[in-house]
UniProtKB/TrEMBL annotation:
GO molecular function: DNA binding; DNA-binding transcription factor activity; zinc ion binding
Pfam families registered for this protein in UniProt: Fungal_trans
Region (Disordered): 1-115
Domain Xylanolytic transcriptional activator regulatory: 279-353
Coiled-coil spans in chain: none
Native source species: Vermiconidia calcicola
Protein name: Xylanolytic transcriptional activator regulatory domain-containing protein
């Protein structure tokens, strides 16, 4: 497999010169009144989308979008994108395709503070757009985001040779991040045996941190099967504490690629559902150290690196890249890595010791790269100064890129909606297949909830423009379809202390929120009853999560939202006359389109309890539902009234 396999993502700037449907070309009167300053966009000449392996100037045939959506009727009607070239993107090359020195991207002004936050005494913990922490209680945030006590100065005694090899074997055979090739197994095991055979003390902090973080990961895997969740976390954390004790030495003393490996593994260790969320800072430190070692660029011939070393450097860097992009999406905070600064090639070589799965690694890289492009096109400050038509066009462009990506991944790993357990992807285990599946779902949502979530359409004014309703309706259908698939796929999650938090918590919760919104937007819809049953399935999954984690992860909100949704559907069926009158401006909307206006007008239920009273008595006091708006970029807590452009006020 060659690095040319990434060609499907080689040109994110262009779109084929096709005409939009009439419904997508016309602009509403409100749009025509916007000033050029407010819109901040100019039309660009049409460009062509290049297919994989095509030379510049050879355009692939994308005039019929249905060919990209076979088997998915809800996607087949997506309009072709406009011929605008998004100004946010600085290059039409994927970073691994750059063989010259990387160019510096133009700086983009950061947008105003539209995110959420929690306060702890005198401190503020900021969570930006799209973070699941927005709907967590204060107690939940307090127990997950930071360490509560100083690390002990006493270090845990390292395991003997037998346990060291046992933990090492468990890491390379079972750890979720082992397949990314961050560490070469044969080299590590050889040095470990030499370390135990030597009578001389070794004080290299890089080697000390590396072996202890692998002991931590392996110990957690072994003890999960022997002693359960809490004990597995307690014992493994002691070894992680050992690695963390030399953190400052890794950063500020003379370091090496091994130091980058250690920090990267520490960041991935913290991805587990049993850990505090320390990966935000750890992966940032790993990236800084990696740049100091030149891992982000293609090695110069004068470096005289052997091919094995080049392959290792590629794997380490792209592991950092993938985690940085995932953390940026989940936290709503900026990514540290600018794609324009890197030209590291994709890993293409398998290893004789089996310590890298190239198929899995490339799939992770490509999905996270498209996620990075999505952030630039939809979430950056410059993206929020464009007209609604350009925003809709960016969504349709990204959807085409998403389908191209999915088609390319079919050769590497299978993405079904939901997963087909009878046909596992070749070369991937269930854990890897589920990770790829959920990464794909998250990317779909990050693209399409921009149009599907009602509070975002409200602040951008898209609900006032009937010209965009076909695309909005299609985005709603895509979000609903993939969210249902995620809830069904949750039955395949192996919950224990090692399960990655994005798989165990973030993706299922994101899906629940999407299905919940879909029900409330149209409680009389044909899918409402089946969606209610899916909400019950999700409640059962989160009950299993709470049980498995010894109540560390308790998410009563899922059961609350299921109850709220069932109440909305039940009230509508009992009181069909309580249908809210829609404003005249929505009369031309697509009939399947959810709007900002409630379909059910709150009244009295059979127990003479108003909807507001029911909510007050059934929701937890410390849940801040006003923060739900930050699941969308550009909307703060008061999502219907916040000024979209605070810098213009």
């Amino acid at each position: 497999m060659s690095s040319d396999d990434g060609g499907h993502l080689s040109d994110f700037l262009g779109a084929k010169a096709t005409q939009l449907p009439q419904s997508m070309r016309a602009l509403g009167s409100d749009q025509r009144q916007q000033s050029p300053t407010a819109i901040g966009q100019q039309e660009q000449p049409p460009q062509a989308i290049l297919g994989a392996g095509e030379p510049p100037g050879a355009a692939s045939d994308v005039s019929d979008p249905s060919q990209h959506h076979a088997g998915h009727p809800s996607r087949s009607q997506l309009p072709c994108p406009d011929t605008k070239s998004p100004s946010q993107l600085d290059s039409n090359e994927a970073p691994w395709e750059r063989l010259e020195s990387p160019s510096q991207s133009a700086s983009i002004d950061d947008r105003g503070d539209m995110g959420g936050y929690h306060t702890f005494q005198d401190d503020i913990e900021y969570w930006g757009p799209r973070t699941s922490m927005a709907i967590c209680s204060q107690a939940g945030c307090r127990t997950t985001v930071k360490l509560e006590k100083r690390p002990t100065k006493e270090r845990k005694e390292e395991p003997g040779l037998t346990d060291s090899l046992r933990f090492t074997h468990a890491y390379f055979e079972e750890a979720p991040d082992a397949a990314l090739g961050i560490v070469r197994r044969s080299c590590f095991e050889a040095r470990l045996r030499s370390f135990w055979a030597s009578s001389e003390a070794e004080d290299d902090p890089c080697w000390y941190a590396l072996r202890n973080v692998i002991f931590a990961s392996g110990c957690r895997l072994v003890r999960s099967g022997e002693k359960g969740y809490t004990e597995a976390h307690r014992e493994s954390w002691s070894y992680f504490d050992n690695a963390l004790s030399v953190h400052a030495e890794l950063l500020y003393f003379r370091s090496s690629v091994m130091g980058v490996q250690a920090l990267t593994l520490m960041a991935y260790f913290a991805e587990a559902v049993s850990c505090r969320m320390l990966q935000y800072m750890l992966v940032a430190n790993a990236y800084r150290l990696a740049c100091g070692q030149g891992l982000h660029v293609q090695p110069a011939p004068s470096w005289n690196l052997p091919e094995e070393e080049k392959s290792l450097r590629q794997c380490v860097f792209w592991a950092i890249y993938c985690l940085d992009k995932q953390v940026a999406v989940r936290s709503g905070r900026p990514s540290l890595i600018d794609d324009e600064d890197i030209n590291c090639p994709l890993p293409t070589s398998e290893r004789s010791d089996g310590s890298v799965n190239v198929r899995y690694t490339q799939a992770c890289i490509k999905i996270n790269h498209l996620s990075s492009v999505t952030r630039k096109m939809l979430f950056k400050a410059s993206a929020w100064r464009q007209a609604p038509r350009h925003l809709v066009n960016n969504v349709t462009t990204l959807q085409m890129k998403l389908e191209e990506l999915r088609a390319s991944l079919k050769l590497q790993c299978q993405i079904d909606l939901p997963m087909n357990i009878t046909k596992p992807p070749a070369g991937l285990n269930m854990q890897q297949a589920l990770s790829i599946q959920f990464l794909y779902y998250n990317l779909v949502w990050d693209i399409h909830t921009t149009l599907a979530h009602p509070w975002f359409r409200g602040v951008t004014g898209l609900d006032r423009h009937p010209d965009f309703q076909v695309q909005i309706s299609q985005s709603c259908a895509i979000v609903a379809e993939t969210s249902r698939a995620t809830i069904l796929d949750s039955r395949f999650i192996q919950l224990d202390a090692n399960c990655p938090m994005p798989v165990a918590y973030y993706s299922p919760l994101y899906a629940v929120v999407n299905v919940f919104i879909n029900i409330l937007c149209d409680p009389s819809g044909a899918a409402a009853q089946s969606d209610l049953r899916l909400m019950d399935v999700a409640s059962g999954y989160f009950a299993r999560l709470e049980y498995t984690t010894d109540s560390q992860w308790s998410v009563p909100l899922v059961k609350d939202t299921a109850t709220i949704a069932r109440t909305a559907v039940g009230n509508l069926s009992r009181h069909p006359g309580h249908i809210a009158q829609q404003p005249e401006c929505t009369s031309t909307m697509h009939p399947a389109l959810p709007s900002l206006n409630p379909v059910y007008e709150p009244g009295m239920d059979d127990n003479n309890t108003s909807t507001d009273q029911w909510l007050d008595s059934n929701l937890h006091d410390d849940l801040n539902l006003e923060m739900w708006g930050i699941w969308q970029p550009g909307s703060g807590g008061e999502s219907y009234t916040t000024d979209l452009y605070p810098w213009n006020s």
